[in-house]
Amino acid sequence: MDMPEKALKDLNKVIEIDPNFSAAYKWRANTYVYMDQPAKSLPDFEKAIRLGEDEPGSAYHKRAKALAALGRTEESLK
């Protein structure tokens, strides 16, 4: 198992233990982006934002970058 896959496994466990830990969703989303899977990152960025993400603005910024990577530029500007 490579490092990103291990990170996903660990983050899934963290979220299972504490589904309200917003940073875990942001970290998992970042891992998906790192793995060149930005579409998978979007629900986690949204969840981190809804839960009150730990670094104001960070999840919004990274969600916008993931949307842009998917060619959804107009949506990324909102």
Report on this model:
With about 80 residues, this protein is mainly α. The protein is about 75% helix and about 0% strand. The protein is built from five helices and no strands. α1 packs antiparallel against α2, α2 packs antiparallel against α3 and α3 (about 40-50) packs antiparallel against α4 (about 60-70). The chain is flat. It starts with a helix and ends with a helix. The model has no long low-confidence stretch (mean pLDDT about 90).
What is the count of helical runs?
A: 5
Structural class: mainly alpha
Question: Major beta sheet, specifics?
Answer: none
Our Rg estimate from Cα atoms comes to 12 Å
User: What order do the helices and strands follow?
Assistant: HHHHH
Extract low-pLDDT stretches. none
SSE blueprint and pairings:
Blueprint: H1 3-17, H2 22-34, H3 38-51, H4 58-69, H5 73-76
Helix pairs in contact: 1-2, 2-3, 3-4
